Amino acid sequence: MQFVLALLVGVLVAPVCSRSVKNGQQTCGYESCNQEIPGMINVHLVPHTHDDVGWLVTVDQYYYKAVQFILDGVIPELAADPSKRFIYVEIAFFSRWFNEQDDATRHLVQKLVNEGRLEFILGGWCMNDEATPHYTAMIDQHKIGFEYLRNNFGDCARPKIGWQIDPFGHSREQASMFAQFGFDGYFFGRLDYQDKDKRQKDKTMEFVWRGSPNNLGGDGEIFTGVLPNGYGPPGGYCFDITCDPNMIKDDPNLHDYNVDQMVDGFIQAVNDQAKSFRTNHLIMTMGSDFNYVQAHMFFKEMDKLIKYVNARQSSGSKINVLYSTPSCYLKQLNNDNLTWTTKEDDFFPYADRDHGFWTGYFASRPALKYYVRVVNSFFQSVKQMAGLAKLDNTYDSGVQLQKLAESMGVAQHHDAVSGTEKQAVAYDYAQRLADGVNGAQNVVQDVYNLWMQKGSTPVPTQVFCGSLNISICSVTENAYNFQVTLYNPLARPVSYAVRLPVSGIKYTVYKEDGVTQVTSDVLPLPSGTLNIPTREARQATNELVFLAQLTPLGYVTYFVKAATLSRSLKFETENEKHKAEVPPNDNSIEGKYLRVTFDDMGYLHSITNLTSGVTVPLLQNFLYYQGFPGNNSAGVDQASGAYIFRPSSNTPVNVPLSKWGGVVKGEVVQEAYQVFTDWISQVIRVYQDKPYVEVEWTVGPVPINDKIGKEVVTRYTLPGFGNKGVFYTDANGREVLERRLNYRPTWDLNQTEPVAGNYYPVNAFMGIKSGDGKLQFTVLTDRSQGGVSLDDGDVEIMVHRRLLYDDAKGVGEPLNETGIDGKGLIIRGTHYLVLDNVETSASIYRPLAQEIFLQPQVTFSDLKVEPSVYVQLFRTQWSALATSLPKNVHLLTLEQFRHTGPVPSPGPSVPYLIRFEHFYEKGEDATLSNPVTFDIQNIFAPFQLTDVHELALGANIPIEQVQRLKWNTQSATIGGQPRKHLSGTVVTLGPMEIVTLQVNINI
DSSP characters for 437-499? Predict the structure, then answer.
């Protein structure tokens, strides 16, 4: 069965390990490079193709129209000439092509890999975006690519270079991640035009990027290079059929003989490039989007270029051209043993010209961004569940998990979760995710069949309600009695607010023992309370709310019993009675930790931290920027679109509050209802036992009857807070970076867009600190968005975009999402507001960010038995943890290796992949930021560990085998061996450190 599974998930041939370089034997790696000529300018031609896994057409369409022919043509070219080189990046495409090949072709490809002639660069399932993915998804999508390469090709296929040539701005977390993968270098193509101009003048296009200067130090640092021509060839030297190429015509008998002209132009391009770089080694990317469909043509022209440029050496030229790869180029730089400059910030926001800030995509396609985040959370849970239930080595669960992993991998592409694809492609991404989820839901049922089983009675079918975010669930709306099972993917106990759409007015909720009652509220649905028109065929009129106490890394079942499902006048009277309990002038809601007040019109007025007694004014508005309708013929006409945020006015239009719905106070939660317009409404909640304010906003469909595109923001304002243009955003959900208005740390900014030019990606949270340094206000998000603090005390976050003009960055259509009914998308989302002292804020927002991302997986059943009977038949609670983890440690990954781990497993044991993460930064908390040591031997209840090995972050090489190239900076030498975190079964983690383990377990 294991062999059949291996065939289905792509392990088709036995891996061939790297070969020795001695005595003329085949080899890969740095010693397989073509040799330079000392004393010359050596130009490293890097043949490559950039293959988007979806953008203008779907990933499947790209494969069938281009990618398969690229690889069909490149492989024979490499086989015919040992000097030729080619790099390939997107394993989502390569795996599909390789799996289709016959045995002879597969072995030929292996030979090319083992000789270093075909090199895998980056090695992820795709080339991910860097602004909008969560770090867990970034790690996962690289891991599945790495695993495919390791299982099919062995060590010679292990990537050594990060290659992010097309994303629209670059995250410091990405650099840190590449360093932790064990990469030696990182190359990218896009950076701000002002930044590039300065770097070219200063010859700092290559540098050491300090990806985690405050936490990981050298283990998060990586040599980084900016490619000189984006990622294309010099002008006039693209020889692909898509380029309308100027061919090298080398027959002197022809009237259009042009060898001298082509050589002169190339030499001029080399000399121009050399002015911006420090060494006599130059990299030239020879390829672009979906190039090499006619591989023979491109290689034949490069052969001519190499031949005729190098022929000039006989007449004194000092330029030598050779086929190469980014790795070979990097090694030559390393051999020069220079001292390099460093960089500690990131490359956001990115602008390619005046008024051309690529900051709109931070919030483009908010529904898709949310769906990617939700599916990622589900993926983490189902991997854990299958691994803990020891299901992952079975046929069906392994196939379903691989399908979900691949759909998640594709979704991280820089034209997927970014929201910069065509509409039809966005639908395709969503469909792939849905198909992956539907298959993996069967795995969840299989897990519960094992975990819940006590006797011979079949375990109830578990039903997922995928529309709970819009208050629709057939089970809870129609059943008098039902069971709610919640799986908690966090390795710590969680108090989770369960909100279920119901049709009745009175319910009793029981804990997992079937006896103990749980406090609950039945509150009116906001859409009914506020007379907001809805599109959904919803039967529910109320929401049942209770707090579920969830066991760590396990599940618990709650029971719900309804007294009545009446939808008669009695229901309306009961609601009025509930409201009547609130004094008519009571415009506040509160819990144990926070109080929020509203003014007489219904606007937010203040927030009080009840623990410290501090009250600050807190205002909120919804506003929208009008999208600039430019024709894009010049920079001043740049339109706002899928990529670009360019408002026609930097003063947004305010959307005033039109209806105040008052407050409703339950025992679990208190709520306030607001309507700003017929397309913006909001519910603000304070739970009794939660240290945050929950703001659930509903925006859309954004009106375009006035023929004006709109970019909708919400703005939280703390007047007099004194942050003075300084604010903080996260990097992909991990480390925090300081931002300053109209400022870049590495060059003097000429700001052309006072709003768009100050927007930054907000993946998980954004905050400001008071001028006196005592208070911090933090807003946490449920998806990637864009944010800024333009004025004192402001936190502005973009929540929705609908635009009517294309921004001319390639997608070729406006960002006008009309939805299935053609009326425009309605987006519902949630912000979580935290006000606390600076020194204690992290202890709230750090775990809260994890709870927002890794939400419990909620399933339902409606077995028609009493709770007391159900408890006798089935197990209603289970946890995988035998020992609690330290409070500052997060279980980042738990899954089985679907094939075999990097370290051979002894005897009958099965390899598992486990990652632990210290999720605080240095100095964030007096206690929780300290290093931590713990023993993993007895943490997991169902497992007997046989041995443990530490791996690099990408889980494709033992940590002791990582030997990174060393680089000199003015302050230190980086590289070499990374720090180890494992001693026996004892793990030691410092702030922001991740340990990646292969844990072999007896089953």
Answer: HHHHHHHHHHHHHHHSB-SSSPPPPPEE-TTGGGT--HHHHH-SEEEEEEEE-SSS-EEEEEE
Rounded to two decimals, the pTM is 0.95
Nearest residue to 424 (alpha-carbon basis) of 167, 784, 126, 60: 60
Cα separation, 523 vs 984, in Å, equals: 53
Q: pLDDT of 599-616, one tens digit each? A: 999 999 999 999 999 999
Q: What are phi and psi of 546, to 5 degrees?
A: -150, 160
Annotated catalytic residues are 166
State how far the Cα of 867 lies from the Cα of 558, in Å rounded to an integer.
9
Beta bridge mates, 598? 604
Sheet holding 932-935, edge to edge: 932-935, 986-989, 982-983
According to the model, what pLDDT value does residue 635 have? 60
Buried b (16+ CB within 10 A) or exposed e, 450-482: ebbeeeeeebbebbbbeebebbbbebbbebebb
**Residues 549/531, Cβ–Cβ less than 8 Å:** no
> Distance from first CA to last CA of the chain, Å, rounded?
16
Please tell me the distance from the alpha carbon of residue 911 to that of residue 934, in angstroms, as a whole number: 21
Which amino acid does the sequence have at 299? F
378, 380, 386, 392 alpha-carbon torsion, rounded to 10°: 120
pLDDT band at 908, cuts 50/70/90?
A: confident
Summarised one tens digit per residue, pLDDT across range 17-54 is 333 333 445 589 999 999 999 999 999 999 999 999 99
Handedness of CA 495, 501, 507, 513 (dihedral sign): negative
Count of helix runs (H) and strand runs (E) in the chain: 19, 49
What's the pLDDT at 944?
85
| Average pLDDT along the chain | 93
Number of alpha carbons in the 13 Å side-chain half-sphere of residue 258: 13
- For residues 300 and 250, the answer to whether their CB atoms sit within 8 Å is no
DSSP strand pairing (726-730 vs 736-740): antiparallel
273: CB partners within 8 A, 6+ apart: 228, 234, 282, 284
Q: Which two tokens stand for residue 581?
A: 């309990």
C-alpha distance from residue 472 to each of 168, 469, 480, 534 (Å): 37, 8, 16, 12
Count how many residues are written for the chain: 1003
What would the pLDDT profile of 139-149 be if each residue is shown by its tens digit?
Answer: 999 999 999 99
CA distance linking residue 381 with residue 703, whole number of Å: 38
| C-alpha–C-alpha distance, residues 903 and 227, integer Å | 36
For the packed helices 366-388 and 838-853, what is the interaxial angle rounded to 10 degrees? 80
CA-CA distance, 453 to 457, in Å (whole number)? 8
424 phi, psi to nearest 5 deg: -60, -35
Q: Which pair of structure tokens corresponds to residue 976? A: 């070499």
pLDDT above 80 for 571: no
Q: For 331, how many CA atoms within 13 A lie in the half-sphere containing its CB? A: 13
> Could you tell me whether strands 857-861 and 710-717 are parallel, antiparallel, or unpaired per DSSP bridges?
unpaired
